[in-house]
Amino acid sequence: MKKAHLFYTVFLLVTTSLFAQEPLLVNTYNRNTTSLSGAWNNIIDPYENGFYNYRYEPFENQENPGNGAFFMNAKAQNPQDLVEYDFDKMDTLQVPGDWNTQKKELLYYEGTLWYKKSFDYKKSENDNRVFIYFGASNYETDVYLNGKKLGKHIGGFTPFNFEVTHLLREKGNFLVVKVDNKRKKEGVPTLNTDWWNYGGITRDVKIVETPKVFIQDYFIQLDPKDNKKIICKIKLNGDQKSSKKIRVTIPELHINSEFIANEEGCIDQEISAQNIQFWSPAIPFLYDVQISVDNETLTDQIGFRTIRTKGSDILLNNTSLFLKGISIHEESPMRGGRGHSKEDALQLLTWAQELGCNYVRLAHYPHNEHMVRLADKMGILVWEENPVYWTIDWGNQDTYANAQNQLSEVITRDKNRASVIIWSMANETPTSTARNTFLNKLATFTREKDPTRLISAALEQSNYNGNPLIRTISDPFASQVDILSFNQYIGWYDGPVEKCQTIQWQIDVDKPVLISEFGAGAKYGHTGNRDQRWTEDYQEYLYQETLKMIDPIEQLAGFSPWILIDFKSPRRVLPEIQDGWNRKGLLSEKGEKKKAYYVLQEYYLHKK
Ligand code: GCB
Q1: Same domain for 231 and 155
Q2: Does the Cβ of 583 fall within 6 Å of ligand 1?
Q3: Angstrom distance (rounded) from CA 20 to CA 486
Q4: How far away, in angstroms, is 64 Cα from ligand 1 center?
Q5: pTM value?
């Protein structure tokens, strides 16, 4: 099979199989939507009493679930009725938002919590279809509308939606959502992480209204092999989708083309374009793109650029580029908790840009779509990461399917973002046959789903031929990646800082090398001696010595130190220093700059 053909087939297969019942709608920013943000009633349910009967059988499997099932939103009609809950008398939580930072008693809660939102909805056209879209909800989510199950989603950081056309009423809908953030051995991520497991409906929930036949998904990107051509794949959804006329317009490129959808409602075309202004950090130019079918026009702002590697160079639009990066967790500066708003995204990316970055590593899971849309506008390159972290249950097929599905969902969501250049498969995973098979499969899947971007993973370093003074990467997965990335903590976990002066690097691979992490913990305002752990001086010294140590690595194409701001981690309990925070931020959680910030800023200022 020809490569282009294979890509097309995989695009269809992946989209159809995942979308078979519940097509994932891309670009909900520019569709006809109604936000369900705001106060939702909730019930904390650690025993899952509203889900299982006293024989521990799910109510939803019973023909008549009865008044015990919370998704029925039951109300006592008569004085003798037995209903042991009442959503409307319960307290509320804000959606979007994690629950841990909204209520003191939920600070460390991991378990099931039910949400209920009542709403009226009148369609703008009788024939239209309606979906309920979740930006993300952590970790397992069961969704019910008007007492009927819509479906379940697993994974805390990617979008999903359900069609509700036939269940929706004009008045008195009730949407009940059960969210369970218990960590699981077989989960992705698994039991053990170095960040707090925020629970809840953490991202926007929207009602999306579409025509009967609508634009479900599209991929409009520069052809990596010919930068005068724009790949244009579009997929329609609806019973009458075959043979529909689809129009693609990019006014600034004088493109106005019409295509006829095939039997499956798809097109796969290339459009020639002259004088494209390529997207780059220096000029993050975005074109207005319009796709029209019947009376529906979906718009997007899309940048066109190429990204590839050649030997040890990363080439953006065929020009070599050094990735001046920083790693970021998606926590809201100032407010605390999981970031969820455009303002949160703007604050994080503005700080990264002020530091001198042209690149960010969004660790350790897909961040909000706000982040990548803003990165497109601000001209910041992005590494996106799947939450395959540390010790995943490698031999478990369901775990693999879950990891692949989460990656698939973020690729579906972000494949039109020029800023996104790297899909990262995993972080610091211990090599074994089962792990290698898992990651290889994931990489093959990713290349087939999106052959236009680079693949990497944050690997670990090791001694070179047993010599602890020479370091290398001997991970078998190194042969699969486009960019060889690794984390290293010489001077912190493997320290003192002076050790940096004794280490050499011998990396025998002709690929760009990225150091995906290095860093040291420092409490803002705690100053003293550079040999004293937790002082800003120690962290500053570590940055100075690390930069000297890694500079001679011939293939070095960039790095993303750990980390922009201090973040919550229940592993970090040292009183007066950590108090529940990982302190490796260059800024405190309140945005105060530590000394090491200026070392990196200075380096980036002069780095070409
Ligand atoms: C790492 C992990 C990161 C941790 C960091 C640390 O290597 O990738 O998730 O937070 O080290 O601070 O130990």
Answers
A1: no
A2: no
A3: 38
A4: 49
A5: 0.96
